[in-house]
Design goal:
The structure is a homotetramer.
Chain A lengths: L1 E6 L7 H14 L5 E4 L12 H7 L3 H11 L3 E5 L9 H10 L11 E7 L7 H13 L3 E2 L4 E3 L15 H24 L1
Helix pairs in contact in A: 1-6
């Protein structure tokens, strides 16, 4: 089973990059699971423009995004929260990806996690990110993990300071993998 | 496989009662599927009140609601739209049901459909109804069916006037049953 | 200027009752402001039922709710969060109130606050409560106040343990009253 | 009173460009109102990147967007719907604009309209676009106008085929201008 994992942030020091790295470790420790740990910079693309699409097609970063989703059985995304919702950059990537037929997200299981320095742990972003993904057919796992006070959550090596966070993430990923496996079983 | 089906409306002449009746017909025509077609009046209950809960427990209509969900492998709900969102009555039933442990919706697949007399087909209700259900662990199927101009959609016998609506509903229910079956396969 | 204030909870020991009591104090200390501090039990009503409405009209608690909104220039509501969203009981009250013409919420300024024992401070409820109110024409003030860890927020007399919460509430209410006054000026 | 008007679409043939042009006509016909009718291409900018911001500041298109909002008393935006929500391109522009202090949207009245070729008239986009704007302090007008079947709504000169749409837009803009005026009166 192949999992595509990425943090929806271009910023190198992003808390979401640290959070997804922890998730990748947990996925890799699970039997039968391989992980494509993508850097969001590989998916850098301009903002959506219907005229650009007509003249030049999907931009290179968007094509790469689509290919990597198609090659995966399931996804895990760590998303920041910007202004109480989904980051424009993640919605823009979804918008470009939705321009091919079949839409690569259609029928894909997705686990959403998110980190923020505040007390709310990106919870509003997590809920707003579900919507466009479900609108194009993704199976977004009901449980999500919003990590609050993310600036204090990781040590110098990027590990969780608080062992409970690791335990919570492991438990969530185990139940998610069970869900993904069931879906695969019927395919 | 047992499906609990109901329209989230007490009103006898509700379009959503007609819509769910059509869905029930389609489910019943599917091999291996039995349907518990509930009347929402069976689930009549007062508005949630923590003091009432402490003194008298879950009210009778709420207990019945919980029992019927527990007995089902999956659900289909037809919901009206009130004031751009989930009806208070449906949210209230979810709130009462969430007071038992384990929450009966946890892990249940749910198909949402909805009918409204206007042009928008209850679409805002459908999206707002996903949220509390997913928050308590339900697998709400990504695709939904919002039926617009519902006052013109059914003939005197309650059948769809427009054959396309029947075909659309059949196709949706087939793909939903495939999803439910896959989930069951892994359980 | 007359403000209708209530907590959308029937439970006597509700944190939202304590929170609204603090808000009422602040409003009452503002020059030219009188407050109608309602107990939500005055608005107790059955769940919405179109047939009941047709046979008996709006129930007594709903009529009282409508009268009190009509008599107010603006509102402040403290709402709990149930299952990641608006309580069914509050949505149900809005649904009944929307059945008269003109809808009493239309054009009314509303300040939303909310308390929860968890870390998220009812933030998902606050955002979901905006939607039906705005759908029926209310001017919901952009800034809201979600009080987290509400079980530790009040002392025995119901005052805030943390002086910052009081300062935050006073600042919010001052800016809200400025907004309400501007609206009134043009009416 | 100065209104900034734009369609949140780069595409030249966009229905939202036609829709905003109709709104601009109505605003211009109102006494005391001047309109800054912007082309969204003036606000073209890369996707948000915290590292780019740190090294080079807000990009040129973003700076222009901020300046134009600051210079306006109020806004009207016509937004498409992409994948059941706010276009990534509009959210991205909001995200960049939120990086200056004070945030230019704070306290600004905004009227949202939107057009789509389908039957739902961009309604899900309109509701999702409110959220980040309100989260950063904008007064988004409660009533919105979602134009469905937009591909059939305009004639060759860009006028509404259906006179009711014009009347509806005029009525909405008159009540919005009243709201903006009241806000201004108290400032």
């Amino acid at each position: 089973m192949k999992i595509l994992a990425f943090a929806a942030s271009l910023r190198k020091g992003s808390f979401n990059r640290k959070f997804i790295a922890q998730a990748v470790e947990v996925f890799r420790a699970s039997p039968g699971v391989s992980v494509d740990h993508a850097d969001y910079r590989e998916f850098e693309m301009p903002i959506y423009d219907g005229d650009l699409e007509e003249s030049s097609g999907i931009p290179k970063g968007g094509q790469e995004f689509i290919r990597r989703i198609q090659a995966a059985d399931a996804l895990v995304i760590s998303t920041p929260e910007y202004n109480g919702g989904i980051p424009g950059t993640l919605k823009n990537a979804i918008d470009w990806a939705s321009r091919v037929d079949p839409i690569p997200f259609d029928g894909k299981p997705i686990l959403l996690i998110g980190a923020s320095p505040g007390g709310l742990g990106a919870v509003r972003s997590l809920w707003h990110t579900r919507v466009p993904l479900e609108a194009i057919g993704a199976f977004v796992y009901p449980e999500m993990f919003g990590l609050s006070r993310a600036h204090q959550a990781f040590d110098d090596k990027g590990n969780f300071v608080d062992a409970e966070n690791r335990a919570h993430l492991e438990e969530l990923i185990q139940s998610y993998l069970k869900f993904v496996g069931e879906r695969g079983a019927g395919a």
